[in-house]
Each structure stands twice: as C-alpha cells, then as structure tokens.
Amino acid sequence: MNKTKITIVDYGVGNLSSLKKAFKFFGMEADISEDPQSVERADAVVLPGVGSYEAGMRGLKVRGLVDAVRGAAEKNRPMLGICLGAQLLLSQGLEFGVFNGLDIISGKVVRFPDLENNEKIPQIGWNGVCPLKDQTWQKTIFDSLSENFNAYFVHSYIFNLDNKEDMLGLTKYGGYEFCSAFKKGNIYGCQFHPEKSGPAGLKIIKNFIDLI
Questions:
Q1: Is 155 a catalytic residue?
Q2: Superfamily per CATH, domain 6-211
Q3: Catalytic residue, candidates 83, 95, 179, 190
Q4: Domain limits of the chain?
C-alpha cells in the first residue's frame, strides 16, 4: 500500500517545524521540501509562510516552485495555504507595490482599511472565525467546529476575493469584517495559523488529512 505523501512547501519564509509537528500529532509524516518534484508527486500540498508578498513570490520563483504549486491546484489535490501562503494563492498582492501572485484564487491581498478606535495593525492574537450567513461548514476543513471558533492571527493584509462563493470564514477586527478563510474545490486558505490555534487548529489539520 502506497504511503500518503504530504509536502510542506519551503520557499524560504517562515518557521515550518510547528506545522510539521501538527501533522505528526495525527501520525502523518509531512515532508518539508523546496523541490518542485516533491510538490508534483505529493498527494496534498501545504503552503505556509510569514513575511511580505514580494518576498514570498520571489522565494517560489527562484526555487522553480510556481508551476509545481499551480499544477497541484489544477489537479484539485488537497491544498492548504496558511497566512502568507494563503495570500500568495490570490491573483495579486498590494503590499509595498503591486505584485502578481499564483492566481489560483481570483482576488487581491489588500491592507486593512482604517479601523475603529485606532485598533492596532497588524492584528496579533486570538479572534473568532464564523461562517457566512446560511453557509454550512460540513465536509470542509472546518467541519464539526463551532460557528465562532477562536484562531490565532498575525497579519496586516487581508483577502479581497472576487467571488463570494469562494469565501469560507469571516472575522471582525476593529469594526471591520473581512474574509479570513476561503475554499475552491479542494484548495483552502486560512489567514490565521491553524498550527498555533489550539484544539480548533488541530481539528482543522485533522479535517485536512481526512480530505486526502
């Protein structure tokens, strides 16, 4: 029996060890790799990251990973983007300029607008994630979670999706409600960090594993 292969994409931004440990908690060995062939052969792909949009895309390009990630998405393999990794799945990022992304999800990454009470940017800490009105989380990576679970965020930029049907989760910060998670087929993105979000985050990892 062939062993399920999960590849955590290393494109030079972020500490990946905590994410690897989250998969190991459920008995799944996830390989950390910057090799495009490892991404191409994977049954599932995780695209994490912390840092600027430009640096993230540059890291993917210099390692020859752009086509490999796009190819996995075109085959609708389970994919999970986290924080910057999720942002890079969109068409463009407007952080310190205009930079083209992977264009797997139609939309742009934009800075938080002016917030109430001079709320600090970046948002750092715990915040709630809830579904869109009349939306169900069944058979998604949020399956069995409460409809306002807490997750850990560190970010100054947010998803601005072109298609509302791609939106999976909403979060409110400083009086402003924004998309904090998306889904298109088997491709998911979370602005927060599941690997740092306690029991709810571990449930998300488990649900992702169950997709594979």
A1: no
A2: Class I glutamine amidotransferase (GATase) domain (3.40.50.880)
A3: 83
A4: 6-211
